[in-house]
Amino acid sequence: MGSTIFEERDRQIHRKGDEPFSMDCDMPSLAGAVSQRACVFCGSRVVLYPIADALHLVHGPIGCAAYTWDIRGALSSGPELHRLSFSTDLQEKDVIFGGEKKLYQALIELINRHSPKGAFVYSTCIVGIIGDDLGAVCRRVSEETGIPVIPVQSEGFKGNKRAGYNAACKALFELVGTGVIDDISPVSINILGDFNLAGEIWIIREYFERMGVQVVANITGDGRIDDIKRSHGASLNVVQCSGSTIDLAIMMERQYGIPFMRVSYFGVEDMAESLYRVANFFSDGDTDIMDRTRELVRNELAQLYPLLEKYRKDLMGKKAAIYVGGAFKAFSLVKAFRLIGMDVALVGSQTGTEEDYRELYDITDPGTIIVDDSNPLELSSFLQEKDVDIFVGGVKERPIAYKLGVGFCDHNHERKEALEGFVGMLNFAREVHSTVMSPVWRFSPRRISQHSSYELSLKAV
Amino acid sequence: MKALAEHFVSTTNSCKLCKPLGACLAFRGIEGCVPFLHGSQGCATYMRRYIISHFREPMDIASSSLGEKSAIYGGGPNLKLGLRNLMNKYNPQIVGIATTCLTETIGDDTSRYVTEFCQEFEEFLNFHGRPELVTVSTPSYSGSYMEGFHAAVESVVAKLAKNEAVVDSVNLFPGFISPADTRYLKEILADFGLKATVLPDISETLDAPALAGYEKIPAGGARLNDIRAMGGALASVEFGRSIIGSHTPGNILLQKFHQPLYSSGTPIGLQETDRFFEILEKLSGIPTPEKHALERGRLVDSYIDGHKYVFGQKAVIYGEMDIVIGITSLLVETGMKPVLVATGSSSKNFRNAIEDVCSGILEEFPVVMEDVDFFDIASEIKSLEPNLLLGNSKGHRLSKEMDVPLIRVGFPIHDRFGGHRQFSIGYRGAQNLFDLIVNTLIQRKQDSSDIGYGYI
Ligand code: SF4
Ligand code: SF4
């Protein structure tokens, strides 16, 4: 049997060592490899899904909708329409004769039933093939119902998740600029690229509010149609997460002249830095904002550090592997592991760009493996080679880790623990601790030899 | 067609899953097999995630990862490339290729591509030990995941089973049952002294022990040579009232090789299990071994001990047809009152099967709904005031909204632990389910009473 690396993928893997950095990425997934990636539709769904008062209708066969029903822990403080799964469930006759009529009827039926503030209609693979005119149907329904009905061009095969992010941003951009903006403070922002998993956006919003910054729209965690409509009234877009909403920020900058900055809320350093940069942006007009922000960070850290210390002691020198959707998150994770005393042996992402990987290269230790668009065979061989104590990934990666007797932390869209903000760092440390320090690994076959003292004690009994 | 509810155009919270998912699950029960989806990447990844969340086991599904070009010019080249890559890395003994909506819609002739592949890459295939390539057509816009499951088993049997030699074993097609149930089923067969090929056999592949190294293809599953020999077996046994009389693996063997076929309901509950054990007695020529007779005896004893807790309690059952039929049978025989049985798919047998397992005991038959989603179930259920829901974990919202407890059975179970280790079939499964039901009702009573009851 050959090696576990597909030759074609050689250039999507880099081991930090003597060779200068060079890597391929943003390639289509290799046929026959079990890619951990999803599709364009998945990317769009991730971005738009948390808008809680919108109707999200998946135009396509049933699977695409069924597999995305309530899979993400994006919380809402009000309506929960986003947690229902709507589909046109296309049947054979629709595929042959076209699905426009069914789409129209389904939209009218659902809008009458739920009175949403707006609707997103997602196109799936076969819709792209049968050629339904989504735009025309949406326009008609919008006219008849008086709410925005927005097509999302997310045919699965037309690229990868990033293309889906782009399609979602285009859809969002149709809403922006259609609301009233008179009562918005000059010290105001939109939060982009946070999806309110486990209530995270509430943590972040609260920081900004303590700093005296008005948050106009959450895009999209705990999001609302009306807020997004008037989001062009904010003075700054604060964008988190690699690719997902950056396109919207760029479009808004072009059209409305709103500047944006990229931030991360994971880990202590990045969290504090993000707040400082926002404060700095407004410090000309609001001379006290910097002081308030320093005060906030000081308070948070004073609470956090003593609590972190006990985890740090246990975790010192343990090894971690990271494989996440976007590379931006990976940067923060590398730093967060460092803060709790751990070493990163592998880091990769599904959709990073060359620039992202270069940055990862710069911040990691020699010997670290950097990988783009990996698959179970590769990941498992890396985990074994590096003999790591924890693997950070998504649900699809979990059984790989567990089967090999390696700890695991879900840092994906399905997580149930808030990992952002200062409190998130503590949750992260606790979660890492709860898996790395568990006694169960000593029973796993891979670890048995490493616990020979334990075996000896067994024999002695 | 929906039986009672108003017919809606839109679907809300689907009660069915798409066809290729079932095919992948079935292929997972064959030794050395890798499921392969001919379509775009997203479908495979979504299904993997869905399956993994239930079994908590690795589930590799390869994909031909079609992009825009293939969608226009056809997916043949990607399929062939994908197969080669897969063989290089996984060295499978068999690849189960299922189509998806996309490839069906663009009109890809998948079996032709595979034939071409075998001609074009003969040497390559020889080098890899001539893996079997089985294709199954699974467009999701007609049918649900259990149809995909059965279709995959059928394709495997149609393609591989021969009758070159008479073998003294029986074929058992259990449908989709849990790994724990599959292990138990094999134990029963062994206790009857019967050699058997269970297809699919997910007992190890989807419930494996912790390992020292990652297995590219999980160990276990029905062996290829045993599948090839199926045509010469003594008889076939097939579970599932919903599929009786349709194209099934057992029927293929019957037609091709005149092999006797015994059809039985999925053996859930005492009576359905009795029917299965009768078949086993006939096939083995021996009476039910004492171990199982005792298990049966204890089950009956517990039915008696627990009958008052459950009598007249109203239940709603939903999910895949054969599980629903079996659970209904168990509930009826213990004195409960199914008021609504619902499924996201449909079959000409479903209503009859439900009436059949109810007749003789229940005076008033439950409402039967086919081709429904959770919105339909929710609208129907309100006036029925059930005490208990039984079905997969996707009913948890319904359960919460109505404040009626839900007992999780079948697939998927995404919000509880160990769903794949749950016993549902046979006397052991009936015992497990009955205990669960009684305890759920008791807990309800305890929780809702001011006194609390220390003895119930
Ligand atoms: S396209 Fe078809 S096969 Fe793919 S997920 Fe959707 S329903 Fe399932
Ligand atoms: S059919 Fe297309 S859109 Fe739907 S899940 Fe599959 S790849 Fe994604």
Task: Please give a quick description of this structure.
The complex is a heterodimer of chains A (461) and B (456). Helices cover 45% and strands 15% of the residues of chain A.
Q: Could you characterize what this model shows?
A:
The complex is a heterodimer of chains A (461) and B (456). Chain A has 3 domains: 40-174, Rossmann fold (3-Layer(aba) Sandwich), CATH 3.40.50; 188-301, Rossmann fold; 316-416, Nitrogenase molybdenum iron protein domain (Rossmann fold). By secondary structure, chain A is of the alpha/beta class. In chain A, strands 1-12-11-10-13-14 form a 6-stranded mixed β-sheet, sandwiched between helices. Chain A starts with 12 loop residues before the first strand and ends with a helix. Chain A is globular. In chain A, helix 4 (100-114) runs parallel beside helix 6, helix 7 (161-175) runs parallel beside helix 10 and helix 12 (289-315) runs parallel beside helix 17. In chain A, 45% of the residues lie in helices and 15% in strands. In chain A, strand 2, helix 2 and strand 3 (86-87) form a beta-alpha-beta unit. Chain B is an alpha/beta fold. In chain B, 45% of the residues lie in helices and 13% in strands. Chain B contains 18 helices and 14 strands. Chain B has helices spanning 19-27, 41-55, 68-73, 76-90, 101-105, 110-120, 122-127, 145-160, 179-191, 224-228, 249-257, 270-284, 290-310, 321-333, 350-358, 374-381, 396-402, 426-447; strands at residues 11-12, 33-38, 62-63, 94-99, 132-136, 169-173, 195-198, 235-239, 261-264, 314-318, 337-342, 367-369, 388-391, 406-408. In chain B, the strands form 3 sheets. In chain B, strands 12-11-10-13-14 form a 5-stranded parallel β-sheet, sandwiched between helices. In chain B, strands 3-2-4-5 form a 4-stranded parallel β-sheet, with helices on both faces. Chain B has a 4-stranded parallel β-sheet with strand order 7-6-8-9, sandwiched between helices. In chain B, strand 6, helix 9 and strand 7 form a beta-alpha-beta unit. The model of chain B is unreliable at 1-5 (pLDDT under 50). The interface between A and B is large, with 77 and 74 residues. The complex binds iron/sulfur cluster (SF4) (2 copies). One iron/sulfur cluster sits between chains A (39, 41, 60, 64, 124-125, 156) and B (40, 42-43, 46, 101-102).
